[in-house]
Amino acid sequence: MDGHPGLNPDTVTVLWCTTDGDERRSAHTLLVRTAARMLDVPLPEIWLEHEPGGRPLLGGAGKSLQVSVAHARGALAVALTTAAPVGVDVEVVRGLRAEALARTWLHPSEEVWIAGLPEADRSAAFLWLWTQKEAVGKALGLGLRRGGMSRPVPVAEHWPPRTGGMPVPRPLPGDPRIATAAALADGGRHVIGVAVHGCADGGPETRGVRVRVHRVATAPRD
User: Fold this and answer.
1) CA dist., res. 88 & res. 114, Å (int)
2) I need a labelling partner for 15 at 20 to 30 A (CA). Which of 75, 121, 169, 217 fits?
3) Would you place residue 65 in the very low, low, confident or very high pLDDT band (cuts 50, 70, 90)?
4) Which of 76-85, 164-173, 205-214 comes out lowest in average pLDDT?
5) pLDDT of the residue at 151
6) Which tens digit of pLDDT belongs to each residue from 168-197?
7) How many degrees, rounded to 5, is the angle at CA 141 between CA 40 and CA 70?
8) Among candidates 103, 125, 131, which has minimal Cα distance to 192?
């Protein structure tokens, strides 16, 4: 059990899959089943709860895990770790008015970055940033309130990033307590964003945190 990557204090485990419906329920089922397997406890000893603001958490034997859940039409993702509060988001890559959306919602430096990319890449790049911002909001327990969309996240060092893997999370500009990463998955058809929030005193909990992404073959059923 100690060798499981999800129980390494420096690792965030992300599982994701496509699905043909009921993404929310399937995501919750995947979360609880994965936690039970990680902790090597019977499934009935772990259950899903929610904080007053709606953020999911695990009860019973799963209290030691920090978790997050995301679902979009046709896709879902869950994140589990013992490192620190975590957030995850998943989006299906689709055509967007990326430049206009960037001008409206994003930090000016991110708007400039998107505008400098080839037009065919801008929708995926916008979602690459969007998923990280959603993940940060979840890790903070705020959602996108209090300027979440305008909060800058690190842009990609190289574009397009390689598909299928998650880079090492990088600190947010001006806030080293929070680190984020994003990846293109499924041949660039999906984007997954992850954020980890260190403790309130600004400790180094997010330094060196790794993210491991695994695709699940099929969405779980109850």
Assistant:
1) 22
2) 121
3) very high
4) 205-214
5) 83
6) 899 998 888 899 999 999 999 999 999 999
7) 60
8) 131
Cα(51)–Cα(212) distance, integer angstroms: 26
- Tokens standing for 90? 């998943």
- Per the listing, tokens 């598909």 go with 163
How far is the C-alpha of 141 from the C-alpha of 134, rounded, in Å?
10
Q: Give start and end residues of each alpha helix (H) in the chain.
A: 23-39, 98-105, 108-115, 122-140
Is 40 or 206 the better-scoring residue by pLDDT? 40
Side-chain half-sphere exposure of 197, counting CA atoms within 13 A: 21
Burial class from Cβ neighbours inside 10 Å (0-12, 13-18, 19+) for residue 84 reads buried
Strand 170-172's sheet: what is its strand order?
A: 86-92, 190-197, 175-185, 170-172
Note whether 110 and 102 are within 8 A (CB): yes
Give the containing element (helix H, strand E) for 105.
Answer: helix 98-105
Does the global pTM surpass 0.85? yes
